[in-house]
Amino acid sequence: MTNESLSTSYATPERMYKLVLAGDAAVGKSSFILRLCKNKFHSSLNATLGVDFQVKNLKVDSKTIALQLWDTAGQERFRSIAKSYFRRVDGVLLLYDVTCESSFVNIRDWMSTIEESSQKKVPIMLCGNKCDLRDSYLREGRKVVSRESGQRLAKHYDALFIETSAKDGKHIEDACKELARILTSLENEEIEQSGLKLEKKDREKKKRPCCPS
């Protein structure tokens, strides 16, 4: 662990955001969180049953941001549980496996579920996970989801896009930091708008004539 990451772990966060990891079973959601939070990778992890939870502090543009990471089960029978976690979420990390075309096709269903379940439009980071396996799959003549296909789908849904690997750690932290930046920017805009509304109310109060005694 670096000195920076050690100091970040104990620093008081300036912002906190709730992120839900979603996507089909076996796309690597639990491995994603394990790599992010513990910097570890296990080739075999038990399937998540229901929902798992972790907190990770990250240094994002000189600010310490706390991310509440909710790992949802990808199996269909747990879909109703996952839906409930989208209601008050700040952002979503939506994963598919670049070596599993069906997990990519099902992203459209996940997008619909998020849209129907959330109370507002939430930023989504679409992650093409297991990108470390693409070259070996191509050499063996096996199908993979191209980076360009992922980019097109993300653009269609106005989502962010990145390719990740929980195995070697590629872009795992980058995905979370970029989503945190977007959330911080949106929150700053909300704070600014709230301040403008309060200023307007104060001006209107001052303009009102006093009641005659």
Automatic annotation (TrEMBL):
Residues 192-213 are annotated as: Disordered. Keywords: Coiled coil, Cytoplasm, GTP-binding, Nucleotide-binding. The keyword GTP-binding applies. It comes from the Eukaryota. GO terms for cellular component: cytoplasm. Transmembrane segments: none annotated. It is found in: Cytoplasm. Gene3D superfamilies: P-loop containing nucleotide triphosphate hydrolases (3.40.50.300). Its main location: cytoplasm. The keyword Coiled coil applies. InterPro entries: P-loop_NTPase, Rab, Small_GTP-bd, Small_GTPase. One of its GO terms (molecular function) is GTP binding. Residues 203-213 have a biased composition (Basic residues). It holds the Pfam family Ras. This is Ras and EF-hand domain-containing homolog isoform X6. It comes from Paramuricea clavata.
